């Protein structure tokens, strides 16, 4: 099954740091592709949070362990024609800090790199975005009955400076979950009838069957979606 690649934009400003005199390239872009523990905008009837451990543990200097991610790109507006840097070349560096996923990219001396430098310095690049595939997540409802997906583990694809957050959440490919089924499952225990007095064996069997049904529902594909534990 092909991974669903998701893209989300965060309202974090992109900063530009000019290159030192005598060095190649126009400078370095610095931004946060993802913000931890912060609710996204409405993504179509549900909201999302990124767990601080979603991208794996940080190294001694806060750097992202690339074992899971292998290779991450930085592209203006997620456009492959506007490549700015890559982790395997060392021109893109990823860090985990108290706010979220921070990236630093050394802009190339190309038309795409020079354009990105000008746009960031002028303040036209006001946002950052990141693309990822979800490996593990859990669902819950908050006090306002909003359906929240918390991403516990993800594989990064790219980070990008963007000018227009026309989409705050988008997917490439078909989603492998149904929000109506998820919401219904979260309320499954609320609608169960109490067992007749003394009929403990039947009650245990019914609970086991209900659990098996929910597990089958949320094991579809390789999404790793995990249901909230209901006590």
**Outline:** elongated
Count of helical regions: 3
**Given the helix and strand composition, which structural class is it?**
alpha+beta
What is the first-to-last residue Cα distance? 33 Å
Helix content, binned percent:
10-25%
Instruction: Tell me the Rg in angstroms.
Output: 21 Å
Q: What kind of sheet is the major sheet?
A: 8 strands, mixed
List the helices and strands and how they pair.
Elements lengths: L4 E6 L4 E4 L8 E9 L11 E4 L22 E3 L7 E4 L5 E5 L3 E7 L4 H12 L4 E15 L5 E16 L6 E4 L6 H8 L13 H19 L6 E2 L5
Parallel strand pairs: 4-10, 5-10, 9-12
Antiparallel strand pairs: 1-9, 1-11, 2-3, 3-8, 5-6, 7-8, 9-10
Report on the architecture of this protein.
This protein is an alpha+beta fold. The protein folds into 2 domains: 5-172, no CATH class; 179-226, no CATH class. It is 17% helix and 34% strand. It is built from 3 helices and 12 strands; from the N terminus they run E-E-E-E-E-E-E-E-H-E-E-E-H-H-E. The chain has helices at 111-122, 179-186, 200-218, and strands at residues 5-10, 15-18, 27-35, 47-50, 73-75, 83-86, 92-96, 100-106, 127-141, 147-162, 169-172, 225-226. Strands 1, 4, 5, 6, 9, 10, 11 and 12 form an 8-stranded mixed beta sheet that branches. The longest helix is centred in the last third of the chain and has 19 residues, at 200-218. The radius of gyration is 21 Å and the shape is elongated. Mean pLDDT is 81; it is low at 213-231.
Structure characteristics:
231 residues, alpha+beta, 12 strands, disordered C terminus
């Amino acid at each position: 099954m092909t991974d669903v690649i998701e893209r989300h934009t965060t309202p974090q400003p992109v900063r530009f740091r000019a290159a030192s005199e005598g060095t190649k390239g126009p400078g370095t872009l610095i931004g946060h592709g993802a913000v931890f523990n912060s609710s996204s905008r409405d993504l179509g009837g549900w909201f999302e949070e990124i767990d601080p451990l979603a991208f794996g543990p940080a190294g001694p200097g806060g750097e992202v362990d690339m074992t899971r991610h292998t290779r991450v790109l930085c592209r203006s507006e997620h456009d492959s024609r506007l490549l700015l840097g890559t982790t395997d070349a060392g021109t893109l560096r990823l860090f985990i800090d108290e706010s979220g996923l921070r990236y630093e990219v050394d802009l190339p001396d190309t038309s795409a790199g020079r354009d990105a430098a000008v746009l960031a310095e002028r303040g036209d690049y006001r946002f950052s975005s990141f693309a990822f595939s979800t490996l593990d997540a859990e669902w819950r409802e908050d006090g306002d009955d909003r359906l929240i997906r918390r991403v516990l583990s993800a594989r990064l694809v790219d980070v990008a400076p963007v000018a227009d957050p026309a989409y705050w959440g988008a997917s490439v490919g078909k989603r492998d979950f149904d929000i109506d089924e998820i919401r219904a499952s979260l309320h499954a225990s609320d609608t169960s009838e109490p067992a007749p007095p003394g009929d403990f064996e039947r009650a245990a069997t019914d609970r086991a069957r209900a659990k098996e049904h929910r597990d089958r529902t949320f094991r579809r594909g390789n999404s790793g979606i995990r249901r909230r534990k209901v006590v």
